[in-house]
Fold these 2 entries.
Entry 1:
Amino acid sequence: MIQELLMRLHLRDRQLARVVNIGTPYLWLGLFFLAPFAIVLQISLAETALAQPPYTSLWEWVDEGVLQVRLNLQNFVTVFSDELYLAAFLNSLWVALVCTILCLLIGYPMAYAIATAPERRRVILLMLIILPFWTSFLIRVYAWIGILKPNGLLNNLLLSVGLIDQPLTILHTQTAIYIGVVYSYLPFMILPLFANLTRLDFSLLEAAADLGCRPFKAFLKVTLPLSLPGIVAGSMLVFIPVVGEFVIPDLLGGPDSLMIGKMLWTEFFSNKDWPLAAALAICLLGVLVVPFVMMQRLEQRMGGDEL
Amino acid sequence: MNRSRWKLYLFLAVGLAFLYIPVLLLVIYSFNESRLVTVWSGFSTKWYGELLHNRQLLDAAWLSVRIAATNATFAVILGTLAANALVRHGNFRGRTGFQLLLTAPLVMPEVITGLSLLLLFVTMEHTVGWPAGRGFTTITIAHITFSTAFVAVVVRSRLSQMDRSLEEAAMDLGARPLRVYMSITLPLIAPALLSGWLLAFTLSLDDLVISSFVAGPGSTTLPMVVYSSVRMGVSPQINALASIVVLIVSVAVLIAGLLSMRQQPAAKAN
């Protein structure tokens, strides 16, 4: 009797926990993360107006029972026909691709070295990777201005050593963007790679060696394929946010390095063209759907351990 | 094998130097007397003194800290609930969508999140009258939205590695699930909650882009002040501020790291 009552209580508790655990985050993210996209789409179809807020309403009641809906596609026409936006989209994708590859080339050996280090040292090394990730992003980008500018620390060093006799122009070029992005996003590449590589079964490598496989070939045939999930996870964590990056191109980039995140910011804050900024956001989302779906597939297969 | 290990460690050392030298230089030059940040002219702590008299910056810092603490607290609650859902409730209906909502904020470009939240707040104010105006509330809501996803990652990994035999024992002795959760599960995952809180706090303290979109007049956060000053060029005061941030963060991470290191052998011994 008491046993049965307890069982019923437990069951009720568990159902309540289920509703709270699933429902609360779902509700919050649905309202503040998902719903806004519908509003962005709506406003990308509006027109700018000298009003507060600075756009027109999509619908209005003109008569009793007559609803007039006015969809303005001009913003999308502008985005697709203006070469500046197209160039910005292409350059953003290019920068993200180059930086993802660079992060992978630098991050993979680092992650491998940490994953194969003795256990005690591993914790400390991992903390050294995580630490800069916690320090302010803005400040770390700022640090590079002082290093890269014409009379900055790098040029001073190279001039005094005699390697160059004219200061190099690096700040406000695309090269500065590459440096800034790789520097800021490197931990995002290393962490999922490390998580993957620590679970690698290294006896497979020993087996390959016993069978006469050279180390480099064993790496290509065993380690690399097995770490593919880590590579994909890390690459997506770098690629997707970098396509829409604003701070780095704004502070380190120059007038000729167009990036879409910066153009969206300018349309919104300088030109006060909210509908055009919204249209750019929709297009950017469209571009990112493919890599995002790839990441999501992987995450489901791995049960979320890679991220 | 040994020779390739040595090369690997050398590469790691160079990589770590790449990650640390810029920040180190920043700290060194914050003690530079010259206004020209990159030319060394003598040791001085005067920029730290000037920092303490910069009212605009101090006000912004205080606002940022208040937002960050509120954000971190809510994000830990929401993130823990989300982690519970993913680890404890198996394959519930809508799990795919739930997971999607939790990973998307991790990678979503900030300009998109910022713009879409602003447009939501404007629409909400227009239709339901809340939030009236933009400032502390809207920035905090925006920060909770992306911080929750990060907290969920941290708590989830701890929760899924947890030894459940203690919970089962308590259940067998007749404790109700909520009681078990409060007195057994929570203390066991406490280090993850702490590092989740700290992570959410620093993410919020650092955010420029999303805050700029959803802030109103009169609510200027610390990164906004830093950003507008940096756009004018390098400034020794920003170096001093950066050094303080680096110091605080290093100490916090060190404490969190030591806590989790001490926790791990204990967990193993049990």
Entry 2:
Amino acid sequence: MTSVRVLVGTRKGAFVLSADGKREQWKVDGPFFGGWQIYHLKGSPLNPNRIYASQSSDWFGQLIQRSDDGGQTWNPVGNKFEYDGIPGTHQWYDGTPHPWEFKRVWHLEPSLIDPDVVYAGVEDAALFQSNNGGNDWHELSGLRGHGTGPRWQPGAGGMCLHTIILDKTNSDRIYIAISAAGAFRTDDGGKTWKPINKGLRSEHIPDPNAEVGHCVHRITMHPSRPSVLYMQKHWDVMRSNDSGDSWHEVSGNLPTDFGFVIDVHAHEPETIYVVPIKSDSEHYPLDGKLSVYRSSTGGNDWQALTNGLPQSHCYVNVLRDAMAVDSLDSCGVYFGTTGGQVYVSPDAGEHWSAIVSNLPPVVSVEVQTLV
Amino acid sequence: MIRVVLPPHLRTLAQVGSEVRFDVSAPVTQQSILDALEDRYPMLKGTIRDYATGKRRPFLRFFGCNNDLSFDSADAPLPDAIATGIEPFMIVGAVAGG
């Protein structure tokens, strides 16, 4: 019997939503870690019962929790994130140098080949790795130290490394993205990195075509087409056909190309989803109508998907880690909002319904397809 | 026997009640209390003192004997009433946020 488990991180705790393959009747468990900010939870693709959670608080700092029973029970593991060497400075909002300071873990990415290996993207931006299930962490400091770090600057949410993409066809290749530095790629398992921002254009930096400084909000990749990447930038939806070496815009007929999330259909590598947001100063849907847009052509030609979504007076946001897809035959698409709703479409976006409507603001959504 | 009062979230994390008690060798200081506390409850490491600086986290305060001890030296001997367990050493979260 197939089923799905939706892992929801919110500003005030974690929730686990479960359903069978029909995705109609839902069981809601939580809150776990009530009162704490849960930036992200993600399960190991090799051992779905192993789930990692990033738990943080302005009062008590960062914790990492691990479950080995599918989210029923949790244990704190290692939370010592120390930068390698003297971390130096990045740009502050006003352009002055600012010391690198660890604040929190934004994203956890379990390895595709070893259930004990997990990566953590942190603020201030850096990539960490654990080889023992989260008990100990070390920085992959080639990223932060490759030379452009002093020019990186924080986005509104902080200078966060929020996206980690592993390539199942090449275990040495990792993509990451940082707000507001841009996208980077390693081809040697994290020792050395290169910026992959050619073709991005951002008006908020002095040189709109600069090597770094772009506010990349999210990147996604279909596992069967690892050289094709899709990006939701601050403004602009972008596509790369060459593993990030170059990008071109595919915003096409979107009503606004500002947004945070982007994801790709589980079975159709050219079908992608975004949630357009009005602007960088008004973080809510255009005209108060919550709409997912889908392109079945890898971008440029977009279709609004609104059936079941609020079409008036809706002023929520959908944050960068808050969309996911399951891998059932009829691909399910999920997203969470800052208004506390988690929506599901069990038919690839044609029809939507709210699984839950009154959670704390949703920060992240991940889905596990269980067989 | 030292008495330490934790804020509610840390009680949940350490799976303890409102107060924990343990022995600390003299001289009893903030440093020695927190070291002993973390030895007994390793999950609290990093939650009271920042890993990088070793200093009290900014949204926490230390109180005892009706005084704010937050800005006293971590190595300074604490009042006898705390060292003997008559009064608790209180770790208090700032009243901030929602």
